[in-house]
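Incident log, support desk, overnight shift.

02:14 A customer reports that sequence design results differ from what the structure should imply. Their input is reproduced verbatim below. On-call engineer (initials T.W.) acknowledged and began investigating.
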């Protein structure tokens, strides 16, 4: 960052008073500019005993399968963002059931918030960011062709714990190896 978004003056990296980390601080008006993690919201969408996946039509991971998910927009709720992403990527109306998992991914400054959701009818088709959409049974999930480690971790947990009646949301980390 070179310039303040409030007044346009130059900024410098320093630790502001009362803080412990370096931030971009405006040299003129003193505005502190925070760079915080991005929130990705998505859902594992089911229809009966099948899971809706989308084949990516964009980078990163073009041509690989994923759950419908994407970056939250300002003014959205996490479940609203997850439902919107399902509509955008799979042209499907997701009925959000509950929070399934939260994954911290510090090496890319992201937090994934994943919900369980369902379709009221098997109506879906590829959206602009998807090459294909498909319902997979648990034993048909294309494990070798999944786009991201977080998607693999969430689906693995879903397959293992989906039948547990007293499911509590999972919180975990995806650490770069």
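02:41 Re-run completed on a clean worker. Output:
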């Amino acid at each position: 960052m070179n310039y303040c978004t409030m007044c346009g003056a130059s900024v410098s990296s320093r630790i502001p008073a009362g803080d412990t980390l370096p931030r971009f601080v405006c040299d003129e008006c003193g505005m502190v500019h925070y760079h915080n993690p991005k929130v990705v919201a998505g859902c594992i969408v089911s229809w009966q005993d099948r899971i809706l996946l989308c084949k990516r039509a964009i980078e990163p991971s073009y041509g690989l399968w994923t759950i419908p998910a994407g970056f939250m927009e300002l003014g959205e709720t996490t479940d609203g963002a997850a439902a919107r992403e399902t509509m955008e990527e799979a042209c499907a109306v997701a009925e959000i059931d509950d929070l399934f998992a939260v994954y911290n991914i510090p090496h890319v400054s992201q937090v994934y918030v994943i919900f369980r959701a369902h379709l009221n009818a098997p109506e879906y088709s590829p959206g602009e960011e998807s090459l294909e959409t498909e319902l997979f049974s648990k034993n048909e999930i294309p494990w070798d062709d999944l786009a991201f480690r977080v998607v693999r971790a969430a689906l693995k947990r879903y397959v293992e714990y989906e039948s547990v009646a007293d499911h509590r949301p999972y919180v975990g980390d995806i650490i770069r190896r």
